[in-house]
Amino acid sequence: MFHRRVTLLVAVLTLGGAYTTAAAQAAADKNKICSQIENRASTVGTWASYNWTGGSSSGSTMRMAVVGTEPHEGTTNYWYEVTIADPRHPNAKMIIQMLVPRLAGAVRSVVMKSGNQPAMKLPPQMIQMVNRTPGMNMAAEVTRACQEMEVVGWELVTVPGGEFRALHLKHPHPTMVSEVWVQPDLQFAVVKGTLKDGGVMELAAQGTGATSSITETPQEMPGLPGTRPPR
What domain range includes position 146? Predict the structure, then answer.
């Protein structure tokens, strides 16, 4: 349940890769927009924090950041970090780091840390599962969300992080994410979003200089019973 929520949130936060000047153009150029989302450039050190009100996540905060790079098969991959915290439950803080060529790309590696527990690195079998399971594969989620959401239009939106002219997108048949307001000039793009359960996420702050929230060396998580590592 938690992993599904996080991957869906991460998918929502990539919708701002769409570069358009009007809602009509966005609707007409949907395939081009989706391609721009998938290939959005990353800048190490950028971060954005969000507040949640209402719904099952009310009172929680979420922080997205690009915290480093690592080469993989001759290309530069980026470590994206998602931190979810609830002031009412400080020991339940969750940090997830994913190594990807771009936010909408296939996941290469995952490191997780829950509360005071040791940081754990997922084994190859679980990475394969993340990439092929619906709801866990970020690339598939981003593509699906982009194709299914409809353009409402440009609107002036005020959130704790400021006032923005943002493109309003709405899902015609939401399963979790209902609406999102995006500003393409922002690194993480999302200004505001709503969930089907009534929860609302709003941009609280953004900046540069982010580094990894996990300072320890991650332990290797045991593989799944009955599975073998890829040859």
Answer: 2-212
